[in-house]
Amino acid sequence: MPPEGHVEVDLDGDDEAVLDRVHDALARLWRSASDVDETDRIALETAVVEVAGNVVRHGAAGPGRHLALTADARRLVAEVTQPGPPPPLDLAAAMPGSDQESGRGLALTRLLVDLTCAERAGATVWTLARPRS
Q: What are residue 126's phi and psi, to 5 degrees?
């Protein structure tokens, strides 16, 4: 049975410090679950950085932003929590056209992981899940 890993980190602070903590958390996860396929690592990392970046740039400021990463024998899961209700987004929206300057991040994320967004105890929880190869 492959090793399992779990890492949690707060996402409070400025953009650069938060993204450094996200990358550090992912590195710790891969050390504890060293058998995760490189393709799965890259997919989860890309998706987590995109969602965490959106939470920091577009979400409510202040305490309560959090990242939890888990690797088990079957799948990889990331939960990104932010204070407040979910934003009014269409998670099923198609990839924007090449003439659009934004809006590709969540569409790309959905290509890499199963993405859901729900309200839990007054906070928004983004769940990113990927079956292991």
A: -95, 120
The stretch 97-126 carries a mean pLDDT of 86
Print the SS3 string covering the chain. Answer: CCCCEEEEEECCCCHHHHHHHHHHHHHHHHHHCCCCCHHHHHHHHHHHHHHHHHHHHHCCCCCCCEEEEEECCCEEEEEEEEECCCCCCCCCCCCCCCCCCCCCHHHHHHHHCEEEEEEECCEEEEEEEEECC
Total-model pTM: 0.90
Query: Which two structure tokens, joined as six digits, stand for 64?
Result: 């309560």
Domain tally, the chain: 1
Q: What is the residue whose two structure tokens read 């939890």?
A: 68
pLDDT exceeds cutoff 90 at 50:
yes
Question: How is residue 29 written in tokens?
Answer: 């996860």
CATH (domain of 38): 3.30.565.10
What pLDDT score was predicted for residue 1? 40
**Strand 123-131 vs strand 75-83: parallel, antiparallel, or unpaired?**
antiparallel
In the predicted structure, residue 51 carries a pLDDT above the cut 90: yes
Q: Supply the range of the domain harboring residue 127.
A: 5-131
Cα-Cα end-to-end distance for the chain? 14
